[in-house]
Amino acid sequence: MYPRSYWLRRIRQAWQRRSVIWLKGVRRVGKTVLAQSLPDIEYFDCELPRVRRNMAEPEAFLRALRGQAIVLDEIHRLDNPAELLKIAADHFPDTHVLATGSSSLSASARFGDTLTGRKEEIWLTPMVLADLADFGSADLDRRLLRGGLPSFFLAGELPERDFQEWMDGYWSKDILELFRLRERHAFLRFVELMLLNSGGMFEATRYARPCEVSRTTIANYLQVMESTFVAHVIRPYAERRRSEIVSAPKVYAFDTGFVAYFRGWQSLRPEDRGALWEHLVLNELQAHLPAGARVAYWRSKHGNEVDFVVLRRGQPPAAIECKWSHDRFESRNLRVFRAHYPEGENYLVAHDVDRPIQRTYSGHAVTVTGLSDLVEQLAGQDASRGVGLGA
What DSSP state is assigned to residue 106? Predict the structure, then answer.
């Protein structure tokens, strides 16, 4: 069992603010192993019938564990999980509860709004750079090609069969049970197409015909994928609406390994690394940005585009351009963006930069940085020191 120090620290900090934590993330991202690695924990697997029977009387169950730290793994298997968590938050605040699940709370009618203001949420993303350090690896190609599910990353050989088995489990355990969808072929076909086109602009009509469903159904499928953290919908940033894309989102797959698998990549070419690097940057931002911050992108109607725009309360938009190698950067898109929005930080994030340096492109100051330093500057926290990813 590898100590995932960044995530363990996040859980400890969250318990200082609330007694109930919802640990969310896709299946096999490591929620169970992370929960079991917490010290002095009482672990309960809610998939087991005997465990569910013990929780039939939530108050009695929690009273017996008063003052302890407990894990309720896969809590959505309970008939009324919201009731147990509400009782824990309101009546047993000295009991620390970590509940896990593979979808957002809003995705299940079993939760409703009863936990609003009663919990902390932690989104366990696929592996971040800090995890690579904990796993004793600085192999960025391995992380890009195999992805960030720990068992996939650590496997002796490229785990090609595991990717398809994951898809089968995603349908049967997450989609069929929580969302009651019936068109298995259409839904999984849409998931595969989204993985193939990951990072592109989304238009529902484009997917309706190959999936043999309506445009409305495609939009519903995307919402389901977003609720289960399999798709990340990145919306455009636009205040000068006449000259900007204002409604078309971009959709990114949750994991570089699945993008590589469905594109048929068994090794990486330089052009492949660039596309996956953008996904990894997004993953790191999602794992580290503070609550209230969000990630958008920017595109003009003339085709100028900035990869990511980070929006934080009370601060001007930070522009981020992603390049595998920093010497491949061309500043025209950033220059057009800053003609509209002159205030804000500019970043060029590349894998071959050891330490941040300031450069000027077309009159605009740009911080050229590696990914760890980018996250530290944007999130104000130590992300993954000691991972040697620079050139």
Answer: G
Written as six digits, the tokens of 51 are 């465990």
Do the strands 41-45 and 120-123 form a parallel or antiparallel pair, or are they unpaired? Answer: unpaired
Q: Which two tokens stand for residue 45?
A: 């697997």
Which residues partner with 320 through β-bridges?
Answer: 308, 347
Please name the residues in contact with 269: beta carbons below 8 A apart, sequence gap of 6 or more: none
Q: What is the pTM of this model?
A: 0.93
Q: Which helix (H) or strand (E) holds 293?
A: none
Instruction: Count the neighbouring beta carbons within 10 Å of the beta carbon of residue 249.
Output: 18
The per-residue pLDDT of the chain, averaged, comes to: 91
Cβ count within 10 A of residue 363: 8
pLDDT at 388 over 50: no
Chain CA centroid to CA 347, Å: 21
The DSSP call for residue 269 is -
Displacement of CA 313 from its chain's centroid (Å): 21
* Cα gap 192→237, rounded to integer Å: 27
Over residues 78-118, the pLDDT tens digits come to 888 889 999 999 999 999 999 998 766 544 555 555 677 88
**Model confidence band, residue 328 (pLDDT cutoffs 50, 70, 90):** confident
Q: How many residues does the chain have?
A: 391
* 369 contacts 348 by C-beta, under 8 angstroms: yes
The Cα–Cα gap between 184 and 180 comes to: 10
**Contact residues for 11 (Cβ-Cβ < 8 A; gap 6+):** 21, 23, 34, 38, 98, 122
Place of tokens 């086109």: 197
pLDDT tens for 132-173 read 999 999 999 999 999 999 999 999 999 999 999 999 999 998
| Token pair of 64 as six digits | 């017996």
Quote the distance between the C-alpha of residue 177 and its chain's center. 22
Q: Report the C-alpha gap between 20 and 38 in whole angstroms.
A: 15
| pLDDT band (50, 70, 90) for residue 37 | very high
Query: Is the distance from CB of 17 to CB of 11 less than 8 angstroms?
Result: no
Asked if residue 204 has pLDDT above 80, the reply is yes
| pLDDT interval class at 77 (50, 70, 90) | confident
Q: Is 64 helix (H, G, I), strand (E, B) or coil?
A: coil
Instruction: Reduce the DSSP state of residue 59 to 3 states and report it.
Output: helix
Name the amino acid, one letter, at 194. Answer: M
Contacts of 327 (CB under 8 A, 6+ apart): none
